[in-house]
Design brief:
eight-stranded antiparallel beta sheet, two-stranded antiparallel sheet, 6 helices, 10 strands
Length: about 200
C-alpha cells in the first residue's frame, strides 16, 4: 500500500514494539495518551467538560505525526534529535509542505478526525454519592510512512482504542458504600474504527 504526498509515494509499514514505544514517548503525543476530559461535582449536582468538545458532545481524537530516527549504535529506541530534525526538513521540502500541519491536513482526507462521545451514562450511578474526574486513555496505532529511494520517513499516529476511568475526588462515604458497582462496567473501552484501509 502506498500514499502519495506531493509527487512522492510513501509505503505504509508496520512498526515494531520498541520503535512504537519510542515514537509514543514524544512529548506532544504523550500528553494526549491520558487526558482529563470531564469532572462531576456531586455536592452541586453539576458536571463540566475539561476539553473542547465537538457540536455532538464528542472528544476529538487527534491523529499525529512524529519524525523519529534512532541513534546509530544505541539500539532502535533512542531518538537522534539532529537526524530526526534533518529528516523532517527533507520530508517537508520533498513534499512541498511548509509544516507538519500541512502534511497532517493532507492525511486528514484519508484518516478523518476520529471522535468519541463521553459515556457519561456509565457513571450516572455514582453521581449522587461522589465527585470525580473522568480520565480518557487513548491507545494509538503507529505506522511508518517511508520512501527508501529518497531516504524519507516519518511516523503517523492514529487512535485505535479509548477507555474511560473515573478518579474519585470527594464522596459521601455511606452513600458510596451502599452502591453496588460492577467495576468492569465502570471502565468502558471502545474501539475506534478506521475510516479507510
Amino acid at each position: 500500500m502506498q500514499i502519495k504526498l506531493g509527487e512522492i509515494a510513501f509505503g505504509v509499514n508496520a512498526v515494531k514494539n520498541r520503535i512504537r514505544e519510542a515514537v509514543l514517548s514524544d512529548p506532544i503525543i504523550a500528553q494526549v495518551i491520558w487526558r482529563d476530559v470531564y469532572k462531576w461535582d456531586h455536592a452541586a449536582g453539576t458536571g463540566e467538560a475539561l476539553v473542547q468538545l465537538t457540536g455532538t458532545g464528542a472528544v476529538p481524537l487527534p491523529n499525529g505525526m512524529v519524525f523519529f530516527v534512532p541513534k546509530s549504535g544505541t539500539g532502535p529506541a533512542v531518538k537522534s534529535e539532529s537526524a530526526s530534525t534533518n529528516m523532517s526538513k527533507r520530508v517537508l521540502k520533498g513534499v512541498g509542505a511548509g509544516s507538519t500541519t500541512d502534511i497532517l491536513r493532507a492525511l486528514h482526507g484519508i484518516l478523518h478526525m476520529p471522535q468519541k462521545v463521553l459515556p457519561l451514562e456509565v457513571f450516572e450511578p455514582i453521581n449522587g454519592a461522589a465527585s470525580y474526574v473522568l480520565k480518557m486513555h487513548t491507545v494509538f496505532n503507529v505506522v511508518e510512512m517511508a520512501n527508501a529511494e529518497r531516504n524519507m520517513a516519518f511516523h503517523v499516529i492514529v487512535p485505535g482504542q479509548v477507555s474511560f476511568h473515573h478518579e474519585i475526588t470527594a464522596k459521601d462515604d455511606a452513600g458510596y458504600a451502599a452502591l453496588e458497582l460492577e467495576e468492569a462496567k465502570m471502565q468502558p473501552t471502545f474501539l475506534i474504527p478506521p475510516h479507510s484501509k
